[in-house]
Every structure is written in structure tokens, then in C-alpha cells.
Amino acid sequence: MNFLKRLLDGAAVEWKPLEEIGDLVRGNGLPKTDFTESGVPAIHYGQIYTYYGLQHFSG
Fold first, then answer.
1. Which of 24, 25, 28, 44 has the fewest beta carbons closer than 10 A?
2. Can you give the pLDDT at residue 51?
3. Pairwise CA distance, residues 24 & 42, whole Å
4. Low-confidence stretches of the chain (pLDDT beneath 70)
5. Is-contact 44 30, C-beta < 8 A?
6. Distance CA 45, CA 30 (A)
7. Closest CA to 28 of 45, 42, 41
8. What is the largest CA-CA distance in the chain?
């Protein structure tokens, strides 16, 4: 907890259970029927930990 206290640096936070702020659904990919053009955006877990091989060039 020391790391978290240092990270927050005295900032006031409201602790909530995860189920109050979002839904965790499925665990093995998303079928097309789950996608929609409107609503709340979501990030797929794989998008967080996937390395896409992007190149950085210095000029």
C-alpha cells in the first residue's frame, strides 16, 4: 500500500467496487454481435498488452 499512497500523493479518492464502475464480460475474445457504433467505449484486454511492432524514426 505504500506505493499506492505515494502515487496518490494525498489526493482524495473514492474507492468503489469494480462492478460499480464497469462490467467484466467474457474472457475469450469478442464476437461481432458485441460491437456497436454507439454507447460507452471499451478497451479489449489484448489491446493493452499487445505489441504491434510500431517503428519510431528520428529525423
1. 28
2. 65
3. 10
4. 1, 25-29, 44-59
5. yes
6. 11
7. 45
8. 47
